[in-house]
Amino acid sequence: MKKILVPFALFCVLCCSSCNRRNASLESLIMATVSDSVQVFPEALTPEDGVSANAFICLEIPQKGLRGKALRKIRKSIVSEALGEEYADMNCADAVSACLGAYAQNYLSDAREIAGGDDTQALLHTLNYAREINGEVVSLQDGILAYRISTYDYAGGTQGSYDERQLHFLAADGTLLKIEDEKN
């Protein structure tokens, strides 16, 4: 009889504690902000020439308040969506740093290509680049975590481009919902 009673009591305790567990709320999340920036000047020019590339990345990342597996999946998806798939397996700070490093290298490569032309002075204005990536948790309701990624890019010319994406995650396990999932 004791052999049956102990597992049954353990089962009851586990069931009661999971029934009493509150759903996660936005207030229960503990966030960390990962941010960094870079400013790069073309090799042939000086800062006084007023030509540079500036990039800034700021991502709000949930750290606690959800299950560990869910947090890891959410962080990986945020990094992948905000910075690119090639950074998905890095921790957030390393991913931001690597993304900024790649941005600086690409800018210097573009600047070398333009500077190699015959009319470099006339093209200086095209060497002002800017990138800004911001990510933030918007809400956590009914088991769905909503996250917004805003991106601004400018690479010379008359105007930049602005993009805003919404990501939705199941808070219980961190699954990134796709549009077809959200319709059901």
Walk me through what this model shows.
The chain is an alpha+beta fold and 184 residues long. It has four helices and six strands. It has helices at residues 2-20, 68-83, 92-115, 179-183, and strands spanning 30-40, 53-64, 129-141, 144-155, 161-170, 176-177. A hairpin with a 5-residue loop joins β4 (144-155) and β5 (161-170). α2 runs parallel beside α3. The radius of gyration is 23 Å and the shape is elongated. The chain starts with a helix and ends with a helix.
Q: What is the SS-derived class?
A: alpha+beta
Please give the largest β-sheet: 6 strands, mixed
For the biggest β-sheet, the strand order reads 1-2-3-4-5-6
Number of helices: 4
Assembly level: single chain
Q: What is the percentage of strand-forming residues? A: 25-35%
Ranges where pLDDT stays below 50 over 5 or more residues in a row are: 5-22
Distance between the termini: 47 Å
* Percent range of helical residues: 25-40%
Large-scale geometry: elongated
Q: What is the count of β-strands?
A: 6
Cα gyration radius (Å): 23 Å
- Whole-number mean pLDDT: 83
Order of helices and strands: HEEHHEEEEH
